[in-house]
Design brief:
2 helices; Thiol Ester Dehydrase, Chain A; 17% helix; HOTDOG_ACOT; plasmid; PaaI family thioesterase; 6-stranded antiparallel sheet
Length: 139
């Protein structure tokens, strides 16, 4: 899909401190698919006793960001320029959420990614669409 050489999983930097705080684990990391999982703890709950939407968006963003990185040209970084999430079902404390990201478009300057999030029973809890921009860091 990418028109440039992609990175290898060995090139992946360690997960962010925020992803570590939520204990988001990457279980698959290829240019074609990234899968991450997160166990829903009581600390992640909202006032209704289910997973807070911000925690679900963090899982989605982490998964999409990992996909963007693995699909970025060597020596190039990326940043999210747009993200939209639809929330469909609640996730109870104790359940595990799985986020599966597939690239829809990997171009010269942008990536469009789709993340489907499911709970333990396989039902979809959310869908995210993200656009990332390739960029070079300037000192």
């Amino acid at each position: 899909m990418a028109s440039h050489p992609t990175r290898d999983v060995a090139d992946m930097p360690p997960r962010s401190s925020f992803a570590a705080l939520l204990d988001i684990k990457t279980v698959v990391c290829t240019p074609e698919e990234v899968v991450c999982e997160m166990l829903v703890t009581p600390e992640m709950g909202n006032r209704n006793g289910v997973l807070h939407g911000g925690a679900l968006m963090t899982l989605s963003d982490t998964t999409a960001g990992t996909s963007a990185f693995i699909n970025s040209p060597v020596g190039v970084s990326n940043t999210t320029v747009e993200a939209k999430t639809n929330f469909m079902r609640p996730i109870k404390v104790g359940d595990t959420v799985t986020a599966r990201c597939t690239p829809i478009h990997v171009g010269r300057t942008t990536l469009v990614l789709q993340v489907k999030m499911t709970r333990g029973d396989g039902k979809t809890v959310g869908m995210t669409s993200q656009t990332h921009l390739f960029l070079g860091w300037k000192e």
